[in-house]
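Sharing a chain and its predicted structure for anyone who wants a worked example. Both blocks are below, sequence first, tokens second.
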Amino acid sequence: MLRVASLSIRYGTAEVVTDLSFDLHEGETLAIVGESGSGKSTTASAVLGLLPAGASAIGSIRVDGEEVVGASEPTMRRL
């Protein structure tokens, strides 16, 4: 299961994702839609642990109960 809770993402002082929460269970599909620049790709990058330098995430992203935000490289490889 993927659980995103109260996720906010910043590039420097610009907040590009604000307080995003959702659960995605095995077998489900989720579509993230929005206007250009609304944070769709940034959200996907955060879930994959691939935010670029200068970006920061606050909140929680859990994959099968394991925290992704701030996770080490070995943890991310295992997930």
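Comments welcome. Residues 2-78 form one domain.
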